[in-house]
Amino acid sequence: MIPISNRETGGSDSVNDQRKSVGLTEYQVKGKFTFKKEDSITLTGIIELPAGLALNKSFQVSIGVGNVVTDGVADSHGKVSALTNHKIKRCQLQYPKLNKDTGLTKTGDKAKFTVSLSSASLVNDGFDTEGITQSVPSKQALQRKIQVAIVLAGIAYYDQASVTYTFTNDTGQISGRSSRSSQ
Q1: Which pLDDT tens digit goes with each residue over 156-176?
Q2: Using an 8 Å Cβ cutoff, are 145 and 163 in contact?
Q3: From residue 84, how far is each of 44, 64, 71, 117, 141 by CA, in Å?
Q4: H or E element in which residue 69 lies
Q5: Edge-to-edge strand list for the sheet holding 110-119
Q6: pLDDT at residue 36, rounded to an integer
Q7: Secondary structure (DSSP) of 139-154
Q8: Collapsed DSSP state (helix, strand, coil) of residue 124
Q9: For 70, which DSSP code?
């Protein structure tokens, strides 16, 4: 998964993109893989927004977690609707307090997001490439990296969330959290 920004495609860029981080500044991920029934993942993270981003109107959003990708439209309240992939059950943004006159972000503003995935085939849909398989030793804590890509109003973000994966009794579990700044 490689997020492509408006700037990289020659599109217009009306923001002052001086972000210190183009990844997740904080995240928490939790998931369960049954390999037969419903798999589920929830990822919550914080991203730094560029100055001048208009959050008082709707804009396009693309988000991918573990190679499961969807597109949607975020409204002025942060609710993402019209998701193109039914495996993404929920996507929500929590915006910073904005200037009431302009509705624009300022340097250093951050947004929190939550994305929830649920399907009987998340492993086959992409999480297998992240090392989430049944072909691992049972009851061992294994380190894995889950790709996270976001394009928010043409602004690209990419990171790899470090998680611990444990496979026990035909079920896999992932969990991870961080408070680091990533570049």
Answers
A1: 999 999 999 999 999 999 999
A2: yes
A3: 20, 12, 5, 13, 34
A4: strand 68-74
A5: 80-81, 68-74, 59-65, 142-152, 155-168, 171-178, 24-33, 39-48, 110-119, 88-94
A6: 85
A7: T--EEEEEEEEEEETT
A8: helix
A9: E
